[in-house]
Amino acid sequence: MSSGPDAPDGGDGPSEGSAAVGEASHAELVRRSATSDEGAFAQLYDATASLVYGVVLRMLRSRDLAAEVVQEVYLMAWQQSARFDPERGSVRAWLCTMAHRRAVDRVRSSQRERDREERYEADRAEPGPGDSTWGQVERTLDEGEVRAGLEHLSRIQREAVCLVYFRGYSHREVAERLDIPLGTAKSRIRDGLVGLRAALGERW
Fold it and tell me: What is the pLDDT of residues 115-163, one digit of tens each?
């Protein structure tokens, strides 16, 4: 089996199961879950999901994100149930530790995404060193001249420049298309333009 029972889908979060079980029973449910006993895992979820959800929600401050992380936590619990050692701590502590780590990962991931968006906006606001040069290419040369000049570039330079000139890609789209860092894409385009200028000479 690849996953356990569904985690909460948002709303007000998961509710405590009607049949509360003690720590010994929690450990037994984990042991049975390790044998792919879905019923036991469902009981474990019902007994502990409210606690796990509360831990995550306090860190993320978003019910929807908390529900997603809780689902991830219980998937991990299902997959790692055979590794649970009751001598190292309680089931509740085990689940809360996983919940805390996943919530921290989500916070860091969100911060990285915000940082990428800020860098992207900065890139758009400040034209790169090759932008004005590229505008000159488009104003002064026809497509045939550009194609002829491209033959003098290296393969990787030609690939990047073609995506910009003939496909209309932005620097960021070139980077994504070629699966390379944005800085590398910009360097290839810039070097390609320098090579194109040298190849076309007075015509540019």
Answer: 666 665 555 544 444 444 455 555 455 556 667 777 778 888 888 888 8
User: Domain spans of the chain?
Assistant: 23-123, 127-203
Answer whether 189's CB lies under 8 Å from 161's CB: yes
Residue with tokens 């060193």: 129
What CA–CA distance (Å, rounded) separates 50 from 56?
A: 10
Q: Specify whether the CB–CB gap between 91 and 23 falls below 8 A.
A: yes
Considering only the top CATH level, what class is 23-123? mainly alpha
CA angle, residues 82, 78, 49, in degrees to nearest 5: 125
Taking the mean position of all CA atoms in its chain, how far away is CA 130? 30
Lowest-confidence range among 20-24, 56-60, 144-148, 183-187?
20-24
What whole-number distance in Å separates Cα of residue 18 and Cα of residue 189? 64
Whole-structure pTM value? 0.48
The predicted pLDDT at position 20 comes to 43
Determine how many CB atoms are found less than 10 A away from the CB of residue 17.
16
CATH class of 127-203: mainly alpha
Burial degree of 75 (CB within 10 A; 0-12, 13-18, 19+): middle
Residue 36: helix, strand or coil by DSSP? coil
